[in-house]
Specification:
By secondary structure, the chain is an alpha+beta fold. The protein folds into three domains: 3-54; 62-237, no CATH class; 258-370, no CATH class. The protein has nine helices and 23 strands. It has an eight-stranded mixed sheet with strand order 3-16-5-4-15-21-20-19. Strand 11 and strand 12 (185-190) form a beta hairpin. The radius of gyration is 22 Å and the shape is globular. 41% of the residues are buried. Keywords: Membrane, Transmembrane, Transmembrane helix. This is DUF3179 domain-containing protein. The chain crosses the membrane at residues 36-56.
Length: 371
Amino acid sequence: MNAERQRLLETAARQKPWRKWGPYLSERQWVAIRKILIVAVCMAVLCGSVGLLTAGQPNSQSAKSTKTDPLAQFNIERLTVPRDEIRSGGPGKDGIPSLTKPKAIATKGAKYRADERIVVVTVGKETRGYPLAILNWHEAVNDVIGGTPIAVVYCPLCDSVSIVDRRMDDATLEFGISGLLHNSNVLLYDRKSNALWSQIGLQAISGPHVGKSLKHLPWRLTTFWEFAKQFPKATVISTDTGYRRDYTRNPYTAYFRTDRLMFPVSRRDNRLKPKTAVVGVKIGETTRAYPVETVRQARKGRIVEKLGESQIVLHANQNTVAVIEAPDNAMVVHTFWFAWAAFHPDTSIYGQTPTTQEARTTQPQAPESDK
């Protein structure tokens, strides 16, 4: 009997319902039970986070979403996504509250952990940081920086970061969280038309702007320590958001520790592990994924290459991933591989040979946790 089994038996002995059968379990049965318990804990933690994410939100429509068709709350005219691929993520419309023009403070006065991941945006001469500690709970920030209205959008389920100029045609859009998912990726809605937008690519999938994408802006994903060191005069959004949230707690920690998905995607691609971090780039109809670890291992942690007729420059080190150069018409997002591949099944992968590129699976698959 190994030490771990002995420890489990001793724990079981203290639980009355286990006393009768605990000593008779085989090694294989103990391993199976342990795996089941690990999955159950992960599911419980993430599902429990739904309540935490919506706590204290006065205009949450979570209750309504369970009784009616959640799509009925939105403008789905000319919807480009099959309805059966859109599902509720748990919270209803605005159940996870986006932020608009949040309070910003000097970097020196901020009390974030040194290793806290933070999205950094520079527009003109102004630089601001958006910690994932806040984005985990709000997912979208409507802000103005350098005189430009921007949206910083994050999907925790995909570890997906995108930053866009909120201006479309003659309108400045403001985004809220719909409570819906497509390919395990959050769907936003703009408050003016009530139409739905995909977070990856920030493209309208319904309503008056259907098929159109907002202009993407350069970004870097780094640690608060690196941010404060490189941009000492920058600002960072404050935890004083007006909502009661424990911004020191990450509700997705258990989810990030496994390759399992919580929600289904339309297709799966096995060329990379599902939660491999990549920088996805789309220019016109050309798409390519750059694994972050591949960028880190490149000479000087930098990749410079032509994608179509345009030059792409990416940088990564132990703490930072950054878009150094990309054309104005490029879509550049940080995300997990499973999400990028689901939306862009024909994508190439930087550093892989044509033979490797063909070794893929693209059939629809349910989340692993449902198997």
